[in-house]
Amino acid sequence: MSTLKIKKGTSKHSAYDLRDPHSNVIERHTLAVIVDNEAGVLARVIGLFSGRGYNIESLTVAEIDHTGHTSRITIVTTGTPAVIEQIKAQLGRIVPVHEVHDLTVEGASVERELALFKVTGSGDKRVEALRMADVFRASVVDSTLESFTFEITGSPEKIDAFADLMRPLGLSEMARTGVAALARG
């Protein structure tokens, strides 16, 4: 496994990193960026992506240290290995950024997402929606005579699979939080 930890523009690469940095293969990476919790920081980080045409698949932000005034931005993005390295280097140069961690290459990590699904239907479709929710360990957080609202947590792939099953059963609305991730161990 490769380890990469960038602090204020420095980087360390493992000799075991066998990825070709010149490869054209598009990879999905989860980045954890520790920043000062102050006005405009998120706009600067997002501006880096939009200004260079990089896509953000998921974005979550929350304060992690109230007394130290720091926040954690978790970004899921895609690109070639060279593009990912460029993103990490450019993030490390932004002044309010303290650390950039590429959870994808640093080792095992845990990714979770929360989603709410409103499923409208009656009869057999309503019963099937409840049965599928039970299989996926989704909770009913609201119920009317016409609809259910389910809450589900899990990997983005689990959320996608649940959405795919709910669509033919009357999925009418969905809200997702985006990925929250931590390195394991």
Descriptive keywords:
185 residues; alpha+beta; Alpha-Beta Plaits; 2 domains; five-stranded antiparallel β-sheet; 4 helices; 39% strand; elongated; disordered N terminus; acetolactate synthase regulator activity
* Element order: H for helix, E for strand: EEHEEHEEHEEHEE
Q: Approximately how much helix is present in the residues?
A: 25-40%
Name the CATH architecture of the largest domain: 2-Layer Sandwich
Shape: elongated
Radius of gyration: 19 Å
Explain what the structure shows.
By secondary structure, the chain is an alpha+beta fold. It folds into 2 domains: 5-107, Alpha-Beta Plaits (2-Layer Sandwich); 110-183, ACT-like. Chain A, domain 2 (Alpha-Beta Plaits, 2-Layer Sandwich). It has helices spanning 41-52, 81-93, 124-135, 156-166; strands at residues 5-6, 27-36, 56-65, 70-79, 97-102, 109-120, 139-143, 147-154, 171-176, 180-183. A hairpin with a 4-residue loop joins strand 3 (56-65) and strand 4. The longest helix is centred in the middle third of the chain and has 13 residues, at 81-93. The chain starts with a strand and ends with a strand. The model is unreliable at 1-16 (pLDDT under 50). One of its GO terms (biological process) is L-valine biosynthetic process. One of its GO terms (molecular function) is acetolactate synthase activity. Pathway: Amino-acid biosynthesis; L-isoleucine biosynthesis; L-isoleucine from 2-oxobutanoate: step 1/4; Amino-acid biosynthesis; L-valine biosynthesis; L-valine from pyruvate: step 1/4. Belongs to the acetolactate synthase small subunit family.
